[in-house]
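Before relying on records like the one below, remember that each one covers exactly one chain. Contacts with other chains, cofactors or solvent are not represented anywhere in the record.
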Amino acid sequence: RITNGLTQSLKLFNGRAFTCEYKYDGQRAQIHRSNDGSVQIFSRQMKESTSRFPDLVGMIKELCSIEVSSFILDAEVVGIDRKKGNKLMSFQELSSRERGSKHSSIAIQNIKVDICVFVFDIMFCNGQR
């Protein structure tokens, strides 16, 4: 049922227990790491978007442990403002990031919108679903 805000929504639960999840205002990303260490990023429509996020590719390569050879993560990439205490930015602000092309990534030093990645599902890891 559509409501006009949080207060009205809480009234509908009438004291019953419930859980909720924060909705991040970012870009959906499916992040693939292959056995050879390469990383590919796909949009919700499964369009290749690796060139748009060279900083994310670098994070994945840097943070992966030796025990994890391959995976597929379902995540939300959100813009953050580090100067304002890592404040989450709007989708529109994230969308203002430069877009790389299929043949060349944007240069990391030219990135003006930093990102944070919220992983919400590990779909595949080391050959297991």
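Residues 26-125 form a domain with the D-amino Acid Aminotransferase; Chain A, domain 1 fold (CATH 3.30.470.30).
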